[in-house]
Design goal:
Layout (H helix, E strand, L loop, with lengths): L3 H9 L15 E4 L12 H9 L4 E2 L2 E4 L5 E3 L22 E5 L2 E5 L7 H4 L27 H15 L4 E2 L2 E2 L2 H6 L5 H10 L10 E4 L3 H7 L5 E6 L13 H4 L2 H7 L5 E4 L10 H7 L3 E2 L27 H11 L3 E4 L2 H9 L3
Parallel strand pairs: 1-2, 1-13, 2-7, 3-8, 9-10, 10-11, 11-12
Antiparallel strand pairs: 3-4, 5-6
Helix pairs in contact: 1-11, 2-4, 11-12
Length: 343
């Protein structure tokens, strides 16, 4: 089996210069919201399947309940990912709130206690695109962070592999503004699990900046600054993500973060971000690799509908060739196959 330097060279092809990679560090596979291409996202079923398929880390997005318990949802608005609309007892809680500067209508976790949320069941967020996942609607409750931690620890014992978690703090400045700050609660829960240093199987990620800077003073767990291809952090702590992705911006990020999580488009087509981040001492974990044509760049699509699965494996292999240190994917089985491919 060849080392990662040769794998990168082979995948780059056509005389391209491939990034060198130490033999001991293949890229990590991060199951984005679990195996969310195959099960409704952010359910224990999706996380279990991701682990079975070879993921190294499972990713829970964290929001808070009215009674300050971390639960796992893509957003604090839960109308699109649960059956809350089918519960007449909660009809009056439908409302409109301003989240990160824009109006959002629906039901929000901060208006529910944990016991109330536990009466709901998860649903597929993209039912028209992932029709097979709809068969699993209604099977899983909304999980807590405590359950995800317990699952990862048990899976580590059962599999003999280290299964980590990769939580994202969702809208931390919004939650702080309504009296539900996240940082101390998250750190306390991770430290109670024995996870308080850079060797812990944990990364904490955020699109905001001040949130991570506060966490830096509270824990030794590795921190990841998320970046999008457009826009700026919602907390106003940086001018734009584009500015953060420059060499000067990356040097500033490196003062508080261990790595970056850029939109995958920011590392494609020979973009310098990977090399620039590595020079700043930052690891690079792009998001999100999805199989459906709808989410693929044109060159990786195949004939069919937007839901048809295209050449995601090649897209991931090309990113690995470019030197990424890990990647988020809704399809961890394919990601693990690329990671483990013999060359």
């Amino acid at each position: 089996m060849l080392g990662w330097t040769m794998i990168a060279a082979l995948a780059a092809g056509d005389g391209a210069v491939a990034a060198e990679r130490p033999l001991s560090t293949p890229p990590i596979v991060i199951a984005h919201r679990g195996a969310s291409g195959s099960r409704p996202e952010h359910t224990l079923s999706a996380y279990r399947l991701a682990i079975e398929q070879g993921a190294d880390f499972i990713e829970p997005d964290l929001v808070l309940t009215k009674d300050d318990v971390f639960v796992v949802r893509h957003e604090n608005e839960i109308g699109g990912t649960t059956d809350v609309a089918d519960h007449p007892e909660f009809a009056a809680r439908r409302t409109t709130k301003t989240i990160d500067g824009r109006p959002v209508e629906g039901w929000f976790t901060e208006d529910f206690t944990l016991s109330e949320l536990r009466t709901l069941r998860a649903r597929e967020r993209l039912p028209q695109l992932r029709t097979g996942n709809v068969a699993y609607d209604g099977r899983d409750p909304v999980p807590t962070l405590a359950e995800v931690i317990a699952l990862a620890r048990q899976a580590t014992r059962d599999t003999g592999r280290t299964i980590g978690i990769y939580p994202e703090t969702k809208h931390p400045s919004y939650f702080a503004g309504i009296g539900h700050p996240m940082e101390a609660r998250l750190v306390a829960q991770l430290h109670a699990a024995g996870w308080d240093g850079p060797d812990a199987p944990v990364f904490i990620q955020s699109f905001e900046v001040a949130n991570l800077q506060r966490l830096k003073t509270m824990t030794g767990v590795r921190l990841i600054q998320l970046m999008d291809a457009a826009g700026a952090p919602a907390d106003g702590a940086a001018q734009s993500y584009a500015a953060m992705a420059t060499p000067a911006g990356l040097a500033a990020v490196a003062r508080y973060a261990w790595g970056i999580g850029p939109n995958k488009s920011m590392v494609a087509d020979g973009a310098p971000l990977i090399a620039d981040a590595h020079r700043a001492g930052l690891r690079v974990h792009p998001w999100t690799y999805r199989a459906e044509n709808l989410f693929l760049p044109e060159r990786y699509r195949v004939a069919g509908t937007p839901a048809t699965h295209g050449r995601i494996g090649q897209e991931i292999a090309d990113a690995v060739a470019a030197g990424v240190d890990g990647f988020f994917t809704d399809f961890p089985l394919i990601g693990a196959q690329v990671r483990d491919a013999p060359y």
